[in-house]
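Q: My collaborator sent me two sequences in one message, no labels, and asked for predicted structures for both. Can we handle them in order? The first one she listed is below.
A: Yes, handling them in the order given. First sequence, followed by its structure tokens:
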Amino acid sequence: AAHLTEHFTEAYLKSTLLPAWHRLLKPSGILRIVVPDAEGMIRAFSQGTYPFENLQTVTYGGQDYPGNFHYTMFSRESLRTILREARFNPGEYSCVARPNGLCLEMEITATKLP
């Protein structure tokens, strides 16, 4: 799920999307998620190395076509928490604050728990 999860509300993620992905995965299946790294972007902005315009666009989405809106953002721990609550075992982040266009992103894999 690369740059998809932030396009849903946290309530929808918890009630619908993550449970659906959990059902679809085989036992011990792996979910890979890539989302904007709020911590990395805020830190870079506060250090003067990340422009406000990029932070604003990534936080709220480009808003230049229907569906290009972001409804939630994640800290590194908040993403791990939401995955745990959905019965996934989050692993280590394979990257944090990785540049991707205007975004600084993070990537994590999580294993399906019974």
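Q: And the one she listed second?
A: Here it is, processed independently of the first:
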Amino acid sequence: MQRDEVVAALRQAKKDRQEISRLQARLAAFEKAWRGLTREEQAILYHTVVDHRKGNVEWLCGELGIEPATVYRRRNKALMKLGERL
């Protein structure tokens, strides 16, 4: 590696470390906000947003004993709550 390449690599490493620090802070903030949700809110968000697959809403309805409209209302409320904490 030539001198200029080493200098460029060092500068890039510094930028990469800064980006990693920024992402770690964002992740920590998200995890704290996520922990502030109830288990039900977490499950609803997980199954309707993160791992949204056909049949998840129906499955949630069966698990929670609620109607699909209620799942969506609770999802929206949980999204708002999560957003306020971020």
